[in-house]
Amino acid sequence: MEGSAWNRWKGSMPKIGIRPIIDGRRGGIRESLEEVTMKMAETVADFLTANLRHANGDPVECILAETCIGGVAEAARTAQRFAGENVGVTISVTPSWCYPTETMDTDPFRPQAIYGFNGTERPGAVYLAAALAAHNQKGLPAFSIYGRDVQDITDTTLPDDVKAKLLQFAKPALAVAVMRGKSYLSMGSVSMGIAGCIIDESFFQDYLDMRNEYVDMSEFLRRMELGIYDKEEFEAAMAWVKENCREGEDVNPVDGQRTREQKDEDWAVSVRMTLIARDLMTGNPKLDSMGYGEEALGHNALAAGFQGQRMWTDFKPNGDVMEAILTSSFDWNGIRQPYMLSTENDALNGMTMIFGHLLTNAAQIFADVRTYWSPDAVQKAAGYELEGMAKDGIIHLINSGPAALDGTGRQSREGKPAMKPFWEISTEETKACLEAVEWRPAVDFFRGGGFSTDYTTREGMPVTMARLNLVKGLGPVLQLAEGYTVELPGEVHDKLDLRSNPTWPTTWFVPRLTGEGAFRDVYTVMNSWGSNHCAVSFGHIGGELITLASMLRIPVCMHNVPDDRIFRPSAWNAFGTGDAEGADYRACAAYGPLYK
């Protein structure tokens, strides 16, 4: 397992800066507040450190200002310190009135929150309101954290509602900071005319502060032919594949099936592709010792995509093994952080996977949003009446290869199926995931052969389906649907699944309905989806996705998140409180991309 302090990207992981704000008036006022203010900051820092980890397993570090901040001099000193400590997120805390414009954080690119103590001895809430007004007037949106119930000024505990808001702010804010300066690596170009593969560099630059890197798929051929990969690791990987990857039935016509010798070579090529894609993304010091110093560096890619179809798959094994193994939380080297690798180089879905990964720390399911099955259609096709959570219809999520093996649902939390951060996964759970998968010889439209993963996701997982889309004249929008995975009786599953592709992984998804808008029924959810692809995260993380989108100034065009879980900057209220979706659009348009 890669150690918890292992970071595959260049540079250190971003930290959270805690800014204790104080009334700067001397002669008794500041002095009476020094201890309680710094204690409040320490309590917030301790809570966040205890409850947050980066996706690579590192604990999230909080940096406290060296002194309380009572004016501009101390604010500037703190800003300088934070810059040297790679602070990417700030939270200002205070139990009292202070001077807002003199103490605020004015960095326009750093997500900011203000926690104003709800007490009556000193009006922390008054500072909170005044500071938020200052942020809004200056065009620096900030998040408001304010406890519902009044506390005594000597009460150093964090109320549950404050804890919830601290976490809902901090995790998306860290995601914003992690993305900065990283790359999206295109391995190939546009697959089969899919628009999500068309790299819009202005989106990556202006909204995410990421760069775009490109290699042609011929780079895989070059590295395979010249042996630019770790030969020892390749042998270990092949032994692991032989022991753990169970081949399934070949459904191709007999005269179209590949020989045993060809299939063995497909495995070898697929494993080499996996090693090469990983090395392209994040580098490999072993290559330097082999005389390939440039190749050893990698592209510092937070995410990548592989075009595959058709220029590659018409004559070489498909990328399904590569994509399934890399996006999973384990391989021949053991349990480790998954890589985010998008099939068909769908960069927009690749970044949706990144959003989900950075919010959950877990693997993601990449899928086609393939088919809506109504109760009547299921009855007609399989003679079965849908029941339970599936009674109103189901959505068939299925795609070739890149659905992480974690998506089998064979990991568990409190006895229920889950997809977990890698440091929570046991060896027994990785074995259970592998045992739930058949590697099926690729179907005939993959003319170059290869293998695809075939599994069915266990039922009962709370999940969130999401997707970034680009719309001409509007820009990026995010859509999401919280719901659950379900299973069907074996014979019913087969009758429906075999109508699509029996060699691919299936997730039967049921969205949570609200009876309104895009969520009035399951059909409308499917009909409102803006692309052929989606990314699926474990857990109901719609609230966190909405918070993240607001930080990046990306409006959310479709969601089923209850109002009490929606957390956006306080400035959004100024754009209308009666129409939250419209206010979100207006605010994002007014502020524009975060980094433009």
From TrEMBL:
SUPFAM superfamilies: FucI/AraA C-terminal domain-like, FucI/AraA N-terminal and middle domains
Entries under NCBIfam families matching the protein: fucI (TIGR01089), PRK10991.1 (NF008220)
Similarity field: Belongs to the L-fucose isomerase family.
Protein name: L-fucose isomerase
GO biological process terms on file: D-arabinose catabolic process; L-fucose catabolic process
Listed EC numbers: 5.3.1.25
Pathway stated in the Swiss-Prot or TrEMBL entry: Carbohydrate degradation; L-fucose degradation; L-lactaldehyde and glycerone phosphate from L-fucose: step 1/3
Active site: 344, 368
Keyword field: Carbohydrate metabolism, Cytoplasm, Fucose metabolism, Isomerase, Manganese, Metal-binding
Binding site for Mn(2+): 344, 368, 533
EC top class, as a word: isomerase
L-fucose isomerase C-terminal domain location: 397-559
L-fucose isomerase N-terminal-1 domain segment(s): 13-181
Domain L-fucose isomerase N-terminal-2: 182-361
Biological role: Converts the aldose L-fucose into the corresponding ketose L-fuculose.
Cell compartment(s), UniProt: Cytoplasm
Name of the coding gene: fucI
